[in-house]
């Protein structure tokens, strides 16, 4: 994709977010907001298609993703049929900010864990499977707990799964901590430039040891659920001593999510030497003039950013490309 800042302006409901969604679908194989393919298809149609052409670093590419109401999603990369559209994630790095991503700060720990695990997979591809491996081991141990409670199995059958949960849990905790440590400095720097001083990330949770899991076995048997491990951990997001989930304003929470996206973009560029595609939906509306300028300065680099707004004048720098969306159609300004 060609470097530069792409500004997409248009009235509310004109289709700006749909454009970003199409870019995400065409580079990642899934929508950042829709739960099912039917939600991606135009009313009255049976299928939808996203065809993208551009440059990924210095190499030309073409992706073709088709979604249908009745068939599995299909994808091609440079003409080659992919086993799954999700394989596009291995070829492209795309990061997105949308207003509903505030749930990363405002929501429960499960949302932050899921966000962190997605970042982990992008930053440490060799560890991308560790969260799934831990989830599989945890599911097996929980099933074994229920079988013991029902008298269908002995306690001895739990031991291998306890060891597996401890081993994969330790790997997951280490990978998550490495991700937080990698993102932390850039996150703090971006947040400060956007007016949020003293912002920090911290991982809350320790590696589950086999003896600790054994010590709470009676409680786990009673509940039929493993009550210790990284499936219960959290990411603490603070400004000074303030927990921003509870005591942050909506503006501060937006800044946190935006800083997370831009910090990860910086980390990906440093680790891969290729800047990701960054999609920013409606980030300017709640920023004052000073913070809009700070954001614009952060975005002027070798990567490509697509930013939407209802008013082209809201962006205080000249974009590389300026587009206008009206009635679902895109044209150059």
Description:
By secondary structure, the chain is α/β, with parallel strands linked by helices. It has a domain of 171 residues: RecF/RecN/SMC, N-terminal domain (Glutathione S-transferase Yfyf (Class Pi), Chain A, domain 2, Up-down Bundle), CATH 1.20.1050.90. Helix content is 41%, strand content 21%. Strands 6-10-11-1-12-13 form a six-stranded mixed β-sheet, with helices on both faces. Helix 3 packs across helix 5. The longest helix has 35 residues. The relative contact order is 0.18.
* Share of helix, binned: 40-55%
Cα-atom radius of gyration? 22 Å
CA-CA gap between termini: 20 Å
Low-confidence stretches: none
Q: Average pLDDT value?
A: 94
SSE blueprint and pairings:
Blueprint: E1 4-9, H1 16-28, E2 47-56, E3 59-68, E4 74-77, E5 80-81, E6 94-97, H2 103-106, H3 109-123, H4 130-149, H5 159-193, E7 199-204, H6 210-215, H7 217-223, E8 234-239, E9 242-243, H8 244-247, H9 250-272, E10 277-280, H10 289-299, E11 304-309, E12 321-326, E13 329-332
Parallel strand pairs: 1-11, 1-12, 6-10, 10-11
Antiparallel strand pairs: 2-3, 3-4, 4-5, 7-8, 8-9, 12-13
